[in-house]
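Quick one, T. Sequence first:
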Amino acid sequence: MALIFFILIALGVGAGFLWTVQEMIFKAKWAYFIFFLAGFLPFYITSLSVIFLATRSPEILGIFQIIKEVVVLLAMLVFLFYQRRVFDYPFRLQSTDWMMLGFLTLGFLYLLLPLGQASFLNKALYYKSMVIPGFVYFLGRNTRFDEVEIGWIFKIIFAVAIGAFVVNLVENYLLQAHLQQFTGYSLYNQVINDIEPSGNFGLTWTFETQAVTKRLASFFSDPLELASSVLMGFAAGLIWFLTSKKEYSWPYLLIMVFSLGSLVFSASRAAFGAFFIMIFFVALVFKLYKLIGAGFLVLVGFGIYVLAFASEDFYFFVLDTLTFENTSSIGHVVEWLLALDSMVANPFGIGLAMSGNAGSVTDELRVGGENQFLIYGVQLGWIGMMLYILAMASGVILSLRVFYSTDNTMIARLAFVGAVTKVGLLLPLFTANAEMYTYVAWLSWWMIGFSVKEYSFIKNTSNQLVPLH
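Structure tokens:
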């Protein structure tokens, strides 16, 4: 069975890769790399697990491991090749560009400096995980898509949201087990990542709650990535629902319902909190103040349910979460304190590959690791952390300005999803190394880049940008 799935995955990924390459090289459509990433990244770890289960070959696995980076780098090379006068390329840098360039330049400097105890190879591998999203942003910054091509992006996002929920239903009601228990996930982690199986389901502790109930991940790498990713699916469904004619809007309502369903199956507290932050942000963007009131009433209703009707286990689960007294919450706080202590003692950082949960960071050297902002702060110092924060914040602001100013509905939708997704990721970024969730992280950075490109165009052609409300 594993061999059959390996053949199907190999054929699917191979066909998608070859189609993308021929479109990029022979038709100069280098921006089509984003279609491959959008379709492949949600299944990335599941695909690797099945491939290794079927072949037990690290060499074959390695080909599929690097394919996402190969596509991005190839897109960069093709982009440069088709620039007839590459040295005359007009640079009109916006605030987000400066912050991103500063962040990546600082990272490159720390790669070369003899700082920290990590090996140069591990530093290089870690820097790769920083610079590839930067390349994705840069490519988005130069992408010119028509409405049909933007529509393809949304169709892929919708398909992923629907597919994730369908797999969740199969896991919960038919298999009554995690999909990862059949894909070789534990074997892949044990042999390739040197992570021993843990928890009551033979996977990792991430796949279960403290009450030993299942947290489902669908075809994503873990429940936390699923939870973060469906926030983007919900945002996409919401903007299409709000900007479509009433008679054609009901499918997008289903997308939102499916995304919420996957959020429930993932049982991620950070993502639930992020969802309410995202709804509050959307209400401010659209001036839907009744939506803020409705959200407040939902929170009040939830509080009444917990206090008056919930089981004792659920009551104490919520209470311990809010007071940071359960094991998971305490673990987050400990990691944050360790990271902050390091940043106070070393305000300019302690070097690359010294924090976080990336494969290039060894357990013996790791300082902190469960807060994306602090992870960069530990390694690159306060300056590096602030550059990352400002890149994200300015990207959200410029995307919103595009949303308010553009006359193109599809571009407005894309800018909206990019901004809302980045805001929705705030809480997951506080509790996880969320830039490792490549599907939602890379696609949202591409959307931010695309929006900054449109902002630059509007600013330099009309000077009629609508200010933020």
